Amino acid sequence: MDTPRTLKSAYDLIAAGLLEESRHNEAARVGERYAIAVTPAIAELIDRADPADPIALQFIPQADELVTRPEERDDPIGDHAHTPIKGIVHRYPDRVLLKAVHVCPVYCRFCFRREMVGPDGDGTLSGEELEAALAYIAAHDEIWEVILTGGDPLVLSPRRLAAIMQGLAGIDHVRIVRFHSRVPVATPQAINGELIEALKAAGKTVWVALHANHPKELTAKTRAACARLIDAGIAMVSQTVLLKGVNDDPAILGALMRGFVETRIKPYYLHHPDLAPGTGHFRMDIAEGQAIVAALRGQYSGLCQPTYVLDIPGGHGKTPLASATTQSIGEGCWSVSDYRGERHIWP
Ligand SMILES: *Cc1c(COP(=O)(O)O)cnc(C)c1O
Ligand code: SF4
User: Fold this and answer.
1) Whether 233 and 85 share a structural domain
2) Does 333 fall in a domain?
3) How many domains is the chain built from?
């Protein structure tokens, strides 16, 4: 049998039994606009008999993506407004994004950078552009943390990753290097000894933020890939996008958060979906998100609680969205609500 490969077109998806033939045209039209990729590990997770499969919803193109709503925008979180030099987004004083690559192992249908990622996206930084980006970081001694994102930085070869880490190793004020990645879910076998070795740099603390949205994604292979990173001294956090039809249910989200904690990954962010074009079918109202997050609080360990955040459109940064649990009722007195929603007076 042939080694399974990544599916990259409507035709590939039909041949693999992941898309009905009648949907070829709609999927092909979506594919002309936004990249498609489904790795073998992801294809294996999809239940072909379930029309509402939460993995299929995340990766199989659908006609809804062709509908751009008036509030949606090409650059939903305002990266461009904070790009002083190619590959860098410097929005907060102490940390920058370094976007070295614009491809991903899989393409999420709700991607917030969907206009920038993919084979036709912004491309990979050339050697010279990377030098210039590193020079920018070196020249700004307020930068304490460099966040590699993109695209998915862990698709880079160990040789290129090592070169980036070597460049950062020479910049004393950078203490933390964070990678945002879906590789442990999409291609867990890629997290091998050579890649892990490449992530190490003298004097730097390395964190990996794993993007996963449904408990099915945390397979034994994915958990083992994360264990290899963590056993090598890398710290991990999670990030999840709250998605209608995928994880907008406290039981599913709770199972996902437990899966992270069992894997030694601290739940970090739960993102409200950004206003990326053609993603309206994934968004719920913020009040619905708040109710789901409040339900998690009472039913799951404190370790399982992510921070529910919105990236304010236009480049204003992230802000927590949890419903207000404290209200001032005058002169040092507060009304606080518990996880059942009952109010208590403090002090
Ligand atoms: C999300 C983001 C970060 C990281 O924010 P944290 O709250 O530190 O996780 C940094 N820079 C930009 C531009 C971002 O969008
Ligand atoms: S892995 Fe991240 S950057 Fe890549 S398609 Fe998914 S959401 Fe977008």
Assistant:
1) yes
2) no
3) 2
Distance between CA 76 and CA 280 in Å, rounded?
A: 13
Which residues are identified as catalytic? Answer: 91-92, 95, 104, 108, 111, 113, 274, 311, 318
Residues 6 or more apart in contact with residue 1 via CB below 8 angstroms: none
Residue type at 264 in one-letter notation: R
Among the bound ligands, name the one nearest to the CA of residue 317. 1
Specify the DSSP class assigned to residue 177: E
Establish if 335 belongs to a structural domain.
no
For the stretch 166-181, pLDDT in tens is: 999 999 999 999 999 9
Residues of the chain where predicted confidence (pLDDT) is lower than 50 = 1
Question: What are the φ/ψ torsions at residue 162 (nearest 5 degrees)?
Answer: -65, -35
Residue 74 CB partners (closer than 8 Å, separation 6+): 115, 277
Ligand closest to 36 (CA) is 2
- How many angstroms separate the alpha carbon of residue 285 from the centre of ligand 1? 23
pTM check: above 0.90 = yes
**CB of 77 closer than 6 angstroms to any ligand 1 atom:** yes
